[in-house]
Amino acid sequence: MTNAATRMTQLPDFPSMFAELQATFETERTRSRAWRVAQLSALETMMSECEQELMDALESDLGKPPQEAWTTEISYIAGEASYSRKRLRRWMKSRRVRTPLLGQPGKSWLQPEPLGVVLIIGAWNYPLQLTLAGLAAALSAGNCAVVKPSELSPATSAVIARRVPQYLDPDCVKVVEGAVPETTALLELAWDHILYTGGGNVGRIVMAAAAKHLTPVTLELGGKSPCVVMPDADLATTARRIAWGKFTNAGQTCIAPDYVLTDAATEAKLVPLIRQAVTEMFGEDPAKSASYGRIVNDRHYERLVAYFASGDVVIGGQADAATRYIAPTVLTGITGDSAVMQEEIFGPVLPVLRIEDLESAIRFIRKGDKPLAAYIFTKNSASEARFLEMVSCGSACVNDTMMFMTVEELPFGGVGASGMGNYSGEHGFRAFSHMKAVMKRGWWPDLAVRYAPFTDKKFKLLRKLR
Ligand code: NAD
Questions:
Q1: 3-state SS class at 206
Q2: At what angle do helices 358-367 and 381-390 cross, to 10 degrees?
């Protein structure tokens, strides 16, 4: 037997698990609003009853401070579940649309229906949020689901695997723990939808596997999210908000500002203000701060430390391999060719690049892949409008970083290389629903105009009716 075959035989029987979920879906029990509401409530209960266990797991995986774990993961999921639960009645209703004269008598509507059995593959950086927020969306839309948390955050993955079957309907929701072999085997199945969060390379693997079954995908990917600071910005607030966005979760956030673009004079004022903001948030030695996280594993630690050589370290630069600590670090003297600018940083290293003006910043951003997020700090509404017009990105924020995540009615998702599709709130409900297009005709009158034999008179009338 080959190695691959040996490995495959050790894997759980995913086809049977999948067939069981399909059979459960066929019982129709996930369709009712009562079932969906019960699942969303159970998810909220799980978040409150398992809060400490989840915080401990997030601390173990990423050194996540409890407040950060609560804000960005635990309460985020409870909030998503409760927001959806309260609005489900409205979302599940059919939506009437106009029927043209030619279709009269008749009426037309969009009727949401669940997709079936869906797969949710999460990433490690927000290991709870990126699996269970998607699950909340899938359940709100009435689907059965399999959740595959990231193997790089094993403690959180284990809590999800232990607790989800206790709180949620175990016939409809399964958790599969594991890495590449497990995910590869799961991807062979004919899912009704796949939500994948992670890097673009694996995103391509997921999409190629999905294509074999014509399975639709939502891909939540990453990229280098730019942050433009104009000279007219309130620089103290700007520095604080950039530092917060960049150093939350030790920079391991898909929408963290990846790099700053600003002019030389503004850079000279901004860097000391970022230093001050870092000291205010994490003290003189962030290694001792209970509010600062750690790097997920040695490979990422090594990758990030190597970036120090890309430019001049003007803030931070300390690192400790044993605890995978990397201080909040700012680099200057960076150009588009520097190593740190070649891929998404995904860690607490912030390069500052000099640009002449807004137009050169826009040109710089547009040369790269479309980012997941883009930020501009300015008091000038023309600069703001120009940036929003010309920078294509998943989400944008003016005068802050990452805060659009708190707006439940904004969808979250990328464009181009940063992803496709989106979710959160009603957008999540729609991502996991099919909006079936329905038309119902009345019986009488049955206008003869569209039927053969075609005549000049009918043709004229048809032109008028259009
Ligand atoms: P990761 O290593 O946790 O991988 C993501 C998932 O893919 C995991 O569940 C993993 O098991 C699976 N996987 C890995 N290799 C695979 C393979 N060869 N075949 C099939 N499945 C495989 O996460 P990552 O890729 O390091 O995540 C970081 C990236 O994710 C960054 O680019 C970040 O910007 C992006 N991200 C995006 C979002 C978003 O919402 N758009 C959120 C968080 C992270």
A1: helix
A2: 20
Q: What is the pLDDT of residues 103-136, one digit of tens each?
A: 999 999 999 999 999 999 999 999 999 999 999 9
Atom of ligand 1 nearest to the CA of 414: 41
Q: Ligand 1 pocket, 215 CB below 6 A?
A: no
Nearest-CA residue for atom 17 of ligand 1: 180
Three-class DSSP category at 215: coil
Q: Are 250 and 347 in contact (CB under 8 A)?
A: yes
CA 206/CA 50 separation, integer angstroms: 31
Which atom of ligand 1 is nearest the CA belonging to 148? Answer: 9
pLDDT digits (tens, 9 = 90+) for 52-105: 999 999 999 999 999 999 999 999 999 999 999 999 999 999 999 999 988 999
Tell me the two tokens of residue 370: 């479309």
Nearest CA, atom 18, ligand 1: 180
133 lines ligand 1 (CB under 6 A): no
Tell me how far CA of residue 279 lies from CA of 282, 286, 292, in angstroms: 5, 8, 12
Q: Is the pTM of this model over 0.85?
A: yes
Are 420 and 396 a contacting pair, CB within 8 Å? Answer: no
User: In residues, how long is the chain?
Assistant: 466
Model confidence at 295: pLDDT above 90: yes
Distances (CA, A) of 85 to 89, 193, 391: 8, 21, 35
Distance 102 CA to ligand 1 centre (A): 50
Tokens found for residue 207: 């999409």
Domains and CATH numbers, the chain: 3-221+417-437 (3.40.605.10), 226-408 (3.40.309.10)
b/e map 450-460, b = 16+ CB within 10 Å = eeeeeeeebee
